[in-house]
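Workshop exercise sheet. Pairs work together: one partner reads the sequence aloud, the other fills in the structure field after running the prediction. Swap roles for the next sheet.
Pair: D.N. / O.F.
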Amino acid sequence: MKVACDIPVSEVMSFPVITAKKNMSVYDIANIMTEHNIGAVVIVEDNKPVGILTERDIVKRVVSKNLKPKEVLAEEVMSKKIITIHQNASITEAAKIMARCGVKRLPVVKDGNLMGIITQSDIIKISPNLLEIVMEYASITPEDVEGFSLDTDEFSEEYINGICENCGYQGRVRLYHGRYLCDECIEEFEEKEE
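Structure field:
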C-alpha cells in the first residue's frame, strides 16, 4: 500500500478541467465560475494552459479598477506566469510547490497538455498531515534565504533564482522593498508609486 504522501497527483486531480479561451470576456468567465461553483478557470490554447483566471484576479484587476467585465478580456487580466505540475509528481511535491509559490491550485500537465487540476483542498482530503508541510513551507521568509538580509539594500539590485512573492513566477527575482519580486511585478509597484 502506498503512503498517502507518495500518491501521484494524477490519482487526486479533478478532471475534466473547466477551461476558457483568452479572448473570452471576464463577465462570461465569471458566469462559468458561478455555474460550476469554482474559484478559478484555466485559460487554454490547443489544450495547453497559458494562464489562469481566479476570483482574486477579477477583484484585483477588474472590480477594484472599476472596469466593465463585459469589455475586459481574460488575456488582459489572467495570471500568465502559470505554475503547473506533471501528472506523475507526488502530492507532497504539489503541496510544497503550492506553499512556496503561494497558490491554491495547480494545473496538472502531461507533455504540456492539460490533464487535470489539483487544489490544496484535494491534497488535505487525501493526506491531512500534509497540512503541516504546507504551513511549514508557507512560513519560510526571505530572511531564511542564505546570504541575503532584509535589513540592508545591499542586494537590492542583484538577482537570484527564486519565486516572486507577489505572483508566484519562478525564475529571476530581486529584493524590492523587503520582498523578492520578478521584474514585471516590480514595474507594477513602481507604476503605482508614481
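Discussion prompt: The two ends are 58 Å apart (CA to CA). What would you look at next?
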